[in-house]
Amino acid sequence: MKVGRNDLCPCGSGKKYKKCCIDKINQEVSFNNFRNFLFELWSYEEVKEMSNEEIIEKLQSIGIMFNKEIFLKDIERYYSAEQISEKWFNTYNVTAKGRDEDFPFYAAWVLWERFAPENVLSMEQMADLIEEGYQYLDDNKSILACDKWLKVWEGIKYRIRTDFNTLEYLDKEYCGSFDIRDFCQELESELYNAGIDEPKYFEIRIKYCKEFLHYFWNENEELIHQMRRAIIESLVRLNKLEEAKKECEKLILDFPKNPWSYIAYGDVYCLYESDIYDAVKAKEFYQKGLSVATGNEEKEIIKERLKNLG
Question: What is the pTM of this model?
Fold first, then answer.
C-alpha cells in the first residue's frame, strides 16, 4: 500500500502525509500492519470523549503548559487547530513520542470547539460543516445543507478584515482545507434550491448576497455579477417585482457590456409566473443582451430564451 508524500494522511488527521505520519511508518508496510498502526493513533472522537480537565492534564504531561486565557487569544490569531498545535511544538519542550505526537492537534481542535464563541470556528470545524452539508445534498436536503453552510459563513464573517475587500487573504488561509470562492458560490446556488422548498430562504439568500457584496465589493466582476443576479432572482421569487426591476436597472448601468445584465432583466418579465409577465419587454432585453454577447454560450442561452417566447 503506497502513500504519496502529498496525499492526505491515511490516519484521518486531514493533514498531508509528509506533515503527519511519514516518519512514523514505512510506506511498504503490509496492509494489516498499517491498519493496526492506524488503530493505535489518537483520533478526534477519542479526544472528544475526554473531559477538559483530562485533556489539559494530558497536555501538561507531555510538556504543554495549557493556559485558557492564552488559548482564547490564540484562537483569535490563528485559523486552525493545526496552527495552534504547531505553535505549542515550537514554544514548549514537547516530550510526546509515538502515538502522543498527534494528541496536541486533536486537543486543540476539541478545546477550540468547547471554549471559543459560537461564531469563532476553526478551519477544521468549517471543513466538517461543509462536508456535512454535502452529505445532506446527497440526500436532496438543501435546507439542512444550507443551515450547515450558513454557520460556516458566520465563521468567515468573523475573520473578515476591513482593510481587505476581496477573498484573496482568506483564500490563502483556508486553501489547505476548502476553496472559499467555490464555497461562497455554492452557498448562493444552494440557497436558491432551499428557497424553492421554503421561501424564507430567498430572504436569507438576499441577506447573504448583500453581505458578500458589502465585504468583498472588489472581487472579480463575474462573482459580483452573480451575487447581484441572485438578489434579483430572489426578489422575483418573493414577488417583490418593483425592487427586482430597480436592481436590474442598476445592474445594466454598472455592467452595460455584460449580456447577463439584460438576461436578468428579461427573466423578470417572463421566466417566472408573476404579475408583470410581458413577453414583448422580455424579448427587448434579450435582444439587447444578444447585441453585446461575445461568447457562444451566452448567445445560445439568449437564443433559447427567445425561442421559448415564440
Answer: 0.85
The Cβ of residue 56 has, within 10 Å, a number of other Cβ atoms equal to 19
User: Would you tell me how many other CB atoms lie within 10 Å of the CB of residue 135?
Assistant: 13
The secondary structure of residue 9, as a DSSP letter, is P
CA-to-CA separations, 137 to 41, 130, 193, 210, 234, in angstroms, rounded: 31, 11, 10, 24, 21
Q: What domains can you pick out in the chain, each with its CATH number? A: 1-41 (no CATH), 42-115 (no CATH), 123-309 (1.25.40.10)
The sign one gets for the Cα dihedral 105, 108, 112, 113 is positive
Cα gap 75→112, rounded to integer Å: 7
Residues 6+ apart with CB under 8 A from 41: 11, 21, 99, 102
Q: Which three cell numbers stand for residue 180?
A: 472559499
Instruction: List, for residues 175-227, the tens digit of each pLDDT value.
Output: 989 999 999 999 999 999 999 999 999 999 999 999 999 999 999 999 999 99
- Taking CA atoms, 234 is separated from 65, 90, 193, 208, 210, in Å, by 52, 50, 11, 11, 12
